[in-house]
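Notebook, student rotation project (T.W.).
Task set for the rotation: take a protein with a known small-molecule partner, predict the structure of the complex, and write up what can be learned from the model alone. Partner molecule chosen: pyridoxal-5'-phosphate. Sequence and SMILES entered below by T.W., checked by me.
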Amino acid sequence: MRYLSTRGDASRPGFSDILLEGLAPDGGLYLPDHYPQVDATTLQRWRGLTYAELAGEILRLFIDDIPHADLDRLVRDTYTPAAFGSPEIVPLRALGEGVFVQALSNGPTLAFKDMAMQLLGRLFEYELGRRGQTLNILGATSGDTGSAAEYAMRGRAGIRVFMLSPHGRMSPFQQAQMFSLQDANIHNIAVEGVFDDCQDIVKAISADAAFKRDRCIGTVNSINWARLLAQVVYYFAGYFQATRDNGQVVSFAVPSGNFGNICAGHVARCMGLPIRRLMLATNENDVLDEFFRSGQYRVRGSSETLETSSPSMDISKASNFERFVFDALGRDAARTADLFGTQVARHGGFSLPAHEFAGLARFGFVSGRSTHADRLATIRRAWEDHASLIDPHTADGLKVALELREPGETVLVLETALPAKFSATLHEALGRPLAMSPEHAELLERPRRFQVMAADADAVKRYIAEHT
Ligand SMILES: *Cc1c(COP(=O)(O)O)cnc(C)c1O
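Predicted structure of the complex:
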């Protein structure tokens, strides 16, 4: 399997070459040069597999430069009931007629990013070991991504993490989760500033090519292909749990931000998984809902990007969206380069002509949006009608699923975080505080290890230089 860039770069790297990379050299995103097709016999055979076995089967279709035995070992070590809380790894629970919640958030940081990041940590360690290289991961976080990355990379050979977060601005739970890590290869840097300051520092350091090279600086952002690939697996696993035979079809409702999660659903559907519809849910930051209703993609400025009660979906543009548009336009790289390299940069977006927009229907996407009031009402309804506690992001997905579901349709709502992470909103919705689990209470009491630093790229560089 070779990979290509959505903007037409002529090189055709293999999986291992793009594993540790971000963007393609031309600024595009990597995609496989074709989607392997899963026939009925294969689908039937996969039905009986464990999650780790299924992951091994799917990954090997896209990865031919890591021996199968090694790949199988990596997925077996990753997807264990001990790490993810149940033998199914991504269990379903029914929430009324034709609606299921698929739990993706029972990993170490209680958010679905663990599903991919836990595997990525092992893949990175494996590949760096093969190459005799080290990697210093530099990132900025306002919460979920940073903690998932740290829990995936902690204690791994050849890897250090330098994670910048805005001092005193993460939730108490998120701070406890990240700062309680005592592993020597994890460095938490609390920057005196806001999230944008953290991101600016990362950009400034990444722009210093010499420093980047000398200190082996890399990232683990949401456009990484391996992350997306790992997410394809749970669409298959959810389908097998919700159906008895391969004649049945299901739909998925996906709380979306950077379009990574739902893009994995698109890949699964392109491989032949019987997915009827992919229901994309946004919060008030509705750039993607607007696109799927109108064909207009309009990137928001930072003043237009709202802080909401489903904060992990507060995006101004969707970094993985280019992958879908590339497929939707018949893999026309010149067109994609024009839309994302030129139109977005010059005019802040683009509008697809009506005939092209109409052609997108074959990919099964539909969309909806949710507000703070919707979120609260949906959390309350799930609790009162089904005794199920859901987090605000999952509530966005459920709200849209209930709105779009047609009679007889089976919809799996992807649960992207656990309610314990967002207890203030749960309190507001239910009118009472959530009971805190003993593990949660214990986490808040653990000793913390972090470094407070001014919002100054040179100070952060000095710190990295002293610790690498
Ligand atoms: C990251 C995240 C999302 C958005 O996922 P994308 O892949 O960026 O679309 C939704 N919910 C939660 C809880 C998240 O952490």
